[in-house]
Description:
Structural class: alpha+beta
Strand content: 35-45%
Strand order of the largest sheet: 2-3-4-1-5-8-7-6
Oligomer: single chain
Number of strands: 8
Amino acid sequence: MDILGATLRVYVDDLEKAIPFYEGLAGGRAMRSERGGVEVAAVGCFLLMSGPESQLEVLRKVAATIAVTDVEETLRAITSLGGDVIAGPVPTPAGRNLIARHPDGAIYEYVDRRA
């Protein structure tokens, strides 16, 4: 399993207002999507999220989003090391993801960029 990098999760009240700042900071354009009532904008290493508090409450439990080369390989590594998969793998607009709980209780999202 290769870890390619991590994305910082930023929860904002007003996505439209936040995007220009993060685009300027990261030097790139936001890639937008929506899932389960939560609006998402990926800008550089930032993942901006805005939506109903009931949905964000669940998302706030995820410490970070980690980019990997292959989600299936990551699933095998996590489970063989004593972690468990809470959700996924499932397709997303950017690739596939899964949510996993590490043996210490920390929860992370893992994503790959496969079509």
